Amino acid sequence: QRCPNCKFYVEKTVLVGDMGSGKTSLALRFVKGLFFDNQEPTVGAAFFTQLLSLPEATVKFDIWDTAGQERYHSLAPIYYRGAAAAIVVYDISSTDTFVKAEKWVEELQIHGSHKLVMALVANKSDLEPNREVETEEGEQFAHESGMFYIETSAKTGENINELFYEIAKRIAKAY
Ligand code: GDP
Ligand code: MG
To answer: What is the ipTM of this complex?
Structure first.
């Protein structure tokens, strides 16, 4: 439902991070409330859209999921164009994906808008027993890079809505 006096924003959001970190699962959980243990690797790019209501505004998220670009930590210019937010995903049970996240942040800082809202997402929080990347490491990196930090699980749904609320709030504030 949209209130008549609410503002309406369309927010292009790009989803980046290493292969297997859970980008597609995150989007699918947010948009459809679904999760698959055997999520098929994304081919090329995928596109999701979802409305989210804040007290003063409704935000339509246009989510650009990526695949295949992971290896090069770089995106085609069309991804950056007009993007309001970027979600950088890693898997807490894999140090390697955290290292890749750092590469993505560098890339976004070079090519993204200087107003880009950036989220560092430590995904797979349900895999706590296999954790390789400590919360403090993620938080510190996010802080140094001007991002906000959140731990999510696409599997249990933990903090998925919170992630997008936080992005929506930060974008709305920037207007
Ligand atoms: P992508 O390559 O970044 O798009 O990653 P996918 O969304 O395809 O996920 C890769 C694998 O990780 C799949 O087997 C998913 O089921 C699994 N996965 C994704 N998110 C989570 C999570 O939060 N917890 C757990 N345990 N597995 C996850
Ligand atoms: Mg994918």
So the answer is: 0.99
The pair of structure tokens assigned to 157 is: 């749904």
Q: What is the pTM of this model?
A: 0.94
Ligand 1 pocket, Cβ-based, cut-off 6 angstroms? 17, 19-25, 36-39, 41-42, 123-124, 126-127, 153-155
pLDDT at 2: 58
Ligand number, closest to the Cα atom of 27: 1
Residue found under tokens 């990347």 = 133
Chain-centroid distance of CA 25 in Å reads: 11
- Residue 165 amino acid letter: Y
- State pLDDT tens for residues 66-108: 887 777 777 888 888 899 999 999 999 999 999 999 999 999 9
CB–CB of 145/155 below 8 Å? no
Q: What is the DSSP letter of 157?
A: -
Pick from 3, 1, 7, 9: which is nearest to 167 by CA? 9
Q: What is the pLDDT of residues 84-93, one digit of tens each?
A: 999 999 999 9
Instruction: From 14, 28, 32, 39, give the residue whose CB has the most ligand 1 atoms within 8 Å, as the site to mutate.
Output: 39
Sheet of strand 85-91: strand arrangement = 45-53, 57-66, 7-17, 85-91, 117-123, 148-151
